[in-house]
Amino acid sequence: MIWHVQNENFILDSTRIFMKAFHLLLFHGSFIFPECILIFGLILLLMIDLTSDKKDRPWFYFISSTSLVISITALLFRWREEPIISFSGNFQTNNFNKIFQFLILLCSTLCIPLSVEYIECTEMAITEFLLFVLTATLGGMFLCGANDLITIFVAPECFSLCSYLLSGYTKRDLRSNEATMKYLLMGGASSSILVHGFSWLYGSSGGGDRASRNCEWSYQYTNV
């Protein structure tokens, strides 16, 4: 009986969380439209790779490049929009972070055609490489608009983990394996120090967003 009640409570809590996430995505999804295009491209690459027997490399290059170009176009069309803070203060959109998002998208767009010869020489899987590049791009774009301590931590982790995987992409190369191990150890140590600092900031401010931190520190400074 107790297990049945706990199971019902778990289902209800999961439903509430899902509905809240769906509500945020429905009403705030337009604010991250360039990022949503990259997510759609990632899902499309995964679906084609899972369902297709023949790995048509030009088709994979076309999907990834097209998603990046469309994302750049959507970002440029939103240049004249007013600054917006969405997702309960976790993400902000303004012209300043759009500049860095454009640079990240441009570098990723140039990276794909420049890597064609390298992938053919290494004879490695093309799908994984493109997935890592797009996911790293997505993490960098979310980092540009991060307005919360949790978002500021999760976005670089998404970016850095894909960088670890890209550095160890050629598994048969000993130098690649060594670079991945060093990169992983240094990145893990850096992330732990970053989380420790964020915990102090969160505890001293009472909130995760930068606005609440600034207000709290300003209030303490005026009292002193």
TrEMBL record:
<feature type="transmembrane region" description="Helical">
    <location>
        <begin position="59"/>
        <end position="79"/>
    </location>
</feature>
<dbReference type="Pfam" id="PF19530">
    <property type="entry name" value="Ndh2_N"/>
</dbReference>
<dbReference type="GO" id="GO:0009536">
    <property type="term" value="C:plastid"/>
</dbReference>
<keyword id="KW-0934">Plastid</keyword>
<keyword id="KW-1133">Transmembrane helix</keyword>
<dbReference type="InterPro" id="IPR001750">
    <property type="entry name" value="ND/Mrp_TM"/>
</dbReference>
<keyword id="KW-0472">Membrane</keyword>
<keyword id="KW-0812">Transmembrane</keyword>
<feature type="transmembrane region" description="Helical">
    <location>
        <begin position="126"/>
        <end position="143"/>
    </location>
</feature>
<feature type="transmembrane region" description="Helical">
    <location>
        <begin position="25"/>
        <end position="47"/>
    </location>
</feature>
<feature type="domain" description="NADH:quinone oxidoreductase/Mrp antiporter transmembrane">
    <location>
        <begin position="146"/>
        <end position="206"/>
    </location>
</feature>
<keyword id="KW-0150">Chloroplast</keyword>
<protein>
    <recommendedName>
        <fullName>NADH-plastoquinone oxidoreductase subunit 2</fullName>
    </recommendedName>
</protein>
<feature type="domain" description="NAD(P)H-quinone oxidoreductase subunit 2 N-terminal">
    <location>
        <begin position="18"/>
        <end position="117"/>
    </location>
</feature>
<keyword id="KW-1278">Translocase</keyword>
<keyword id="KW-0520">NAD</keyword>
<dbReference type="Pfam" id="PF00361">
    <property type="entry name" value="Proton_antipo_M"/>
</dbReference>
<keyword id="KW-0793">Thylakoid</keyword>
<feature type="transmembrane region" description="Helical">
    <location>
        <begin position="99"/>
        <end position="119"/>
    </location>
</feature>
<dbReference type="InterPro" id="IPR045693">
    <property type="entry name" value="Ndh2_N"/>
</dbReference>
<feature type="transmembrane region" description="Helical">
    <location>
        <begin position="181"/>
        <end position="202"/>
    </location>
</feature>
